[in-house]
UniProtKB/TrEMBL annotation:
Coiled coil: none annotated. InterPro entries: Peptidase_S8/S53_dom (IPR000209), Peptidase_S8/S53_dom_sf (IPR036852), Y4bN_pept_dom (IPR034074). This is S8 family peptidase. It comes from the Bacteria. Gene3D superfamilies: Peptidase S8/S53 domain. Residues 282-624 form the Peptidase S8/S53 domain. Signal peptide: none annotated. It comes from Octadecabacter dasysiphoniae. CDD domains: Peptidases_S8_Subtilisin_like_2 (cd04847). The lineage of its organism: Bacteria, Pseudomonadati, Pseudomonadota, Alphaproteobacteria, Rhodobacterales.
Amino acid sequence: MAELEFPHLFLNTVPNSQQYTNPTGGGSKFQLPDRPNRIQHADYVRNALDKIWDESFTLKEQRKAVSLPARTGTYVEFESAAGFELKFESLETRRSGIRLLNVRAHENPNGSKTQRATIFVPHGKEKILADKVRRYRDEDTPKDQPKNKPLVESVENLRIALLHSFWNDDVGLIPPVDAPHACEIWLRTPTKEGEAASIVVFREVCEALNITLRDGHISFPERVVVLIEANSQQLTDLISSTDNLAEFRRAKETADFWVGMENAQQAEWVQNLAARLSVDAGTKTSACVIDTGANNGHPLLAPLLAEADCESVDTDWGTNDEDGHGTSMCGNVAFGDNLGHWLQTDTAISLPYKLESVKLIPKSGFKEDQDLNGYRTSQAVTRAEISNPEFTRAICMAITSTDGRDRGRPSSWSGMIDALAAGVDDEQEARRLFILSAGNVRNASDWANYPDSNVTSDIHDPGQAWNALTVGAVTFKDQITNADIANIYTPIATAGQLSPYSTTSMMWDSKWPNKPDIVLEGGNAAVDGTNFTTQLEDLSLLSLNHKPQLANFTGNYATSAASALATEQAARLHAQYPNAWPETIRGLMVHSAQWTQQLWNQFSDPGNSHKANRERLLRACGYGIPSVERAMSSASNSLAMIVQGEIQPFQEKKKNDFKANDMHFYALPWPKEALNDLPLDTMVTIDVTLSYFIEPGPGEIGWRDKYRYRSHGLDFNLKKPTESLDEFVTRLNKAAREDDDTDYGGSGVDWQIGEKKGRTRGSIHRDWVEMTAAEAAEAGVVGVFPRSGWWKERPYLGKGDSKARYSLIIAIRTPKTDVDIYTPVAIEIEQQIQV
């Protein structure tokens, strides 16, 4: 490849905006179990409802008799037949106060699966459900089908809701009756204005039940999350006492990784480098490390991390690092994996960004008196922004939960990351770039099962956040130079493979994002002849010790170290392109990533298609290893164009009925002549990345249709060389009419990943296509179009006409290094700017 030496080209092109046409009809058929006796099934459901109302009334009277708080309605749990789903959307009647609270998948002892949904029915509204059953029993539609058939016939069982009806976590994590644990309580809040009142009422109930409610809460559309200390009996009492519950989850215990110290290095090396080290005086870019604090008294941090830029979410903790993890993270954020090299040079080193540190936890594994993790994370971000409000920052957080039990499901923590990234509830609508570690395969004994242990170990919370750049670990460290142990231990992974520490999303449901997004060096582990595994300094990254009086250097490893390296790259990109949005920086890093052949060999199956294997790679290691050179610059034969745009995904066509609104089409400044000058058989790659931030809507209510987690979706496609612009618009319009995440207008474009093989998960999408130079010359139009989300499907929340930002990156690459496709495009863009 030619030397990467030219800046990427940012386009000021105004897109050609086209509105969708929205014909009616379509949709998939809802499958129902066989109900041969309509009257018998209706009577069964009606009798079960009557029993539930009797139980609820009796419970209410019993609690009132002993002056205990009592709810003013009934929680009901519905269950589908095995192998079928509930028509749970029809259970809700908002105007009457009947609300759908959560939807959960349930696996029975025999292996069959059912779906369960919990609703709240206010006292006095019981007849609404009864009338739905009555109409099913006695009335027909014009097509001679029972009224409300999908709803009633989808119900197999129903009962008054108990603790398990609200528990959206592993049932083994329900606190025992004699041991309170921290639990997340997800409260339903019909309106933003009613949120404060809901918390006040809930606090009064907790006081009456002697339940500890901790300070702080997290807000989402129709949900607010609080943290309590409770045992199972107290959780049951809550269900009997209050009306606004939606779901319960066990609070996560945050943990990070013990960092081993290496022998002290000669202090002269440190002093020599410190004397050559500085930060660019005019920089407005920072790398903010949210961790265990940082000891900026270390000679190599003192020039980069000012005392005023050290903060803590709890002033009682101070800002210094008593654990070591935060300081080692700062070391790799500052120096990457090049500290050893820089120590041995004599040149001056000036970083284009400065460091910030916010202490989120006092030490690894901290859990005592723990607040909501998402709430504390938002506090940490706020403290950094108050200190340097004018700075653009890359936010690094390698603090995760101790496990991956969410399996891709949004949590309060990941949801808060998504909300902070998207600028939700921020007066300035400030977007933020979060770089998160994926979490690690924690048990050393599991490393012996590499790479199967990576496949079965899930990304840890909050690494499933859609808007964050989640970083896994690869390794190139497979040499043990310590002669004393070189004949005892062998590196587990070979160079270019996934690190033994790295977790994956390979076991996740297909609806969740591909995580990690990228992988970077995270070190290796070693095994001996007895299958005993261990960490070695030889296989770790060199970083800084938090106690320089004892040792200046230490080892860092795993996805923590990998996320630090990613933050270094992101901060350099921010400094290089100060006007680039956080969405763009994330997009550039994903856009520059590539899989090693070792990763391909490791996770591809010879029996699968190439697209199926690429889907496995996305789940194991994202888009691969980002190249800071490719992310930073274009080349004469490798051109990247960037559009930062805003689109209104939906528009109200009639009252409370929103439809897809705009498609954006970009007729790009295209190196058509240069491409036509190439030999006819020259293959050219067109690589497209679309990065945007969604507004989260967590809370387990089915995660589909109007209850989607995402506020909106976006996708892209490329004009085929042989079709006209009108035909291209028609093709995308057809895809838009479906709006069911199955048709992406991909016909005729042979994308390498493919719309149906994982490209469109999450909120960053990348794909590439290879074609001849002559074909590429005719393919210079890209379309961006919206997909459904809760902005559209829940109009009562008032967000249906909201606008959304996106960053679109389009690259053209030719294998010939002596061709110049960059200059003609740069000249055309300059002429457009002058006009």
